[in-house]
Specification:
Number of strands: 14
Helix content: 40-55%
Strand content: 5-15%
């Protein structure tokens, strides 16, 4: 037999992403599918024409290497953007990343050693769990309710574990996958706990600018300006287009040299042409008109999905009612419905979603699923929910 390949021990913790894998799965399908799986705006809600125009702009050194921390003019635009939304920051706090996922990777690379405990929400973004696991973290899942991360349960579970967390991973606004928002009082308590335990807060907020109703809740950085325990991860994927793969982290200035070193070992620098394109878009004042257009449509689509679920399923399901973002978290009253087992029938019916267990470190939420309303028109949403109902009926009859 051939000699086994000398794989590193860490490969056992490379769990991948059910969400990202769905892109390849759907590409292989030949029939019509209503796509509620990926968390992304639909093509008609991306500013494609403007991005195409600015990507064609000629500029000196556009195709050269750039500064690892980001092209200075791009960094300046990020500082300005955050100031417009209540967060005072500075260039030495900003590192431009290749998407929000690189920001999460950098956070874990800087703060997580093998065996360290990392608190994660339950449910939460599966890629966040996967990133922490890839650095050898041991995950402690803490429940989320309608007010976000349950900080009382957090205290109880940390005490029961007999150790304090190295990091706390939270998605405070329109959480992925639940859509709920962490209330102010819990944000304040979370900051107190991080100081008490000496923990980092990995503040992952892809959706914070996508509020389409309700009142603004101050960010962790607004509540504790300059707090070095807050490591903020941001992205343009949700507000502009995911294919740009452009994001940033806002962190204590003392961390920037380490971030630069870590990033240089990954990709040297974030794509300069992409930074140029987005910088031109922002500099031209196009972001707010774009947001004004799409937020109205996201609200319309959320309402259409909730109405379709209510008409079709009634009391058989419950769903969250987010004030922004992209997602509904849907739970079946009948706990015998396993959404992983349901998925093949759903795909055959022409409907794609992400099963609930994919969002749990402990493999909970088998009778739940995540639906993205951002990708579909109200008419298409109605069709998708109808297909989901047919799949549930087929699944139940096969039991």
């Amino acid at each position: 037999m051939p000699t086994p390949l000398p794989l590193a021990h860490r490969v056992d913790d490379l769990v991948g992403s059910v969400i990202d894998s769905s892109t390849s799965l759907l590409a292989r399908q030949t029939h019509d599918i209503v796509r509620f799986a990926m968390g992304a705006p639909s093509d008609d809600l991306m500013p494609v024409e403007l991005l195409d125009r600015f990507s064609a702009c000629r500029e000196a050194d556009k195709y050269s290497y750039g500064a690892t921390e980001g092209v200075p003019a791009m960094v300046d635009q990020i500082v300005k953007l955050q100031a417009e939304h209540g967060v005072s920051t500075s260039p030495e706090r900003i590192t431009v990343t290749t998407g929000g996922m690189q920001g999460l990777d950098l956070a874990c690379k800087l703060f997580v050693d093998p065996g360290d405990m990392v608190v994660v929400e339950g449910p939460t973004y599966s890629n966040g769990n996967a990133t922490a696991l890839s650095y050898g973290a041991r995950l402690l899942e803490v429940p989320v309710d309608e007010q976000g991360l349950d900080v009382d349960a957090l205290v109880e579970r940390v005490e029961a574990s007999g150790r304090t967390p190295k990091a706390i991973y939270t998605i405070p606004n329109f959480q992925n996958p639940s859509g709920v928002t962490l209330v102010r009082s819990r944000r304040e308590r979370l900051l107190e706990l991080a100081d008490e335990w000496g923990s980092m807060i990995i503040d992952d907020d892809p959706y914070g600018l996508l509020r389409f109703e309700g009142s603004h809740v101050p960010s962790l950085s607004e509540l504790a300006p300059g707090n070095p325990r807050i490591f903020s991860v941001r992205t343009f994927s949700k507000i502009l287009a995911p294919g740009l793969r452009l994001g940033w982290v806002d962190a204590d200035p003392s961390l920037q040299p380490l971030l630069i070193n870590a990033k240089q070992a990954m990709d040297t620098c974030t794509s300069v042409p992409v930074q140029t394109t987005v910088r031109e878009f922002l500099d031209g004042g196009h972001l707010q008109p774009h947001m004004d257009r799409v937020l109205h449509l996201y609200k319309q689509r959320k309402e259409a999905m909730r109405a379709a679920l209510d008409r079709t399923f009634g009391d058989a399901v419950t769903s969250t009612d987010p004030e922004g973002g992209f997602f509904l978290w849907v739970t079946f009253a009948d706990e015998r419905i396993d959404t992983e087992q349901l998925f093949p029938q759903a795909l055959a019916e022409g409907i794609a979603y992400i099963p609930g267990a994919a969002f749990s470190a402990d493999r909970n939420f088998h009778n739940a699923l995540r639906l993205c309303f951002a990708t579909s028109t109200p008419e298409r949403i109605d069709e998708g929910v109808a297909r989901l109902a047919r799949a549930v009926e087929r699944h139940a009859s096969a039991q």
